[in-house]
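Example 5.3 — Cytoskeleton protein RodZ
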Amino acid sequence: MSTLPIAGAALAAERERQNLSRSDVAQRLHMSVSQVEALETGDYSRLPRGTFLRGFVRNYAKVIGLDPNPILEALHNESPEHSRPGIVVASQNIRFDPLADRLANPYVKAAGIATVVVSVCFATMYWWLFVRTSPPPSAARKPAMVVEAPKAVEPLPAPVEAPRYVEPAKPEPVKAEPPPAPAPAKPAKSEPPKAEAAKAESAKAETAKAAPPKTETAFASPASSVNSASSLPNTVDAGSVVAAGGSVIRLKFRGTAWVEIKDGRGKVLLSRNQQGGSEAEVIGKGPFSVVVGNAPEVSMFLNDRPFDLEPHTKVAVARFTIN
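Solution (predicted structure tokens):
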């Protein structure tokens, strides 16, 4: 009757005492059942030798809770040829060339020079792209951002003063010698007083027809005129002006305001300060450029129709163009 090896018998006895099967131990050791069986029966030819065999025995003893040293000692006594691994080194002639002889090879020299050149090229390219302190080209192309300052409110232009009439200086009297006495003239025939009165009245009528009416009118073009409501008792009929291709701008001032109206050529048709309760009127052909100061206190009518100044008003100043 053959007996089990001491090492394998001790492992198998402890396993059976713990009611463990060989498959349980194989699962814990991550081994196959046949390898566990070979360990317990001492069939070491089915297992790796040397260090691997000792490792299997040591792990098996630790899994079932035994001290691995006595088991390893028993393994050494029963199979000393499997306890230590044999290291076999194949003997062959190995030639060791000196370093100087290797570097003397022209191929080695060429490879070394090529390696140095490639390294220098890569270092130069890296310095040129990432290290060189020069502004990127994109910085020069992008224009600087211009932050517009808030537009200041344009002050109202100073009112244009009307020209004042300056009386000419009176010349100093010059003393002159008395002229010589005129020769006696023949007495003229005196006309009757009624004839003289008729002549005077006819002369006054002709003078009145020739002189224009006293109104504040400034002609900017053949089709444009400016009238002051204070001096014109009757306003112009807007329908007739529109039918003729013109426009009538009428302004009513509830408070003190300033107004300036220019024609399409930039000529000033009206530029003055208006007092509250006054009116102003511009007649002509457009386009008209209109600026009204203190616009909330002004009502405007275009061809006898109300014209809203509020959409064109900023900071109490209305600016717009009428075609």
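Remark. Residues 106-131 form the longest helix (26 residues).
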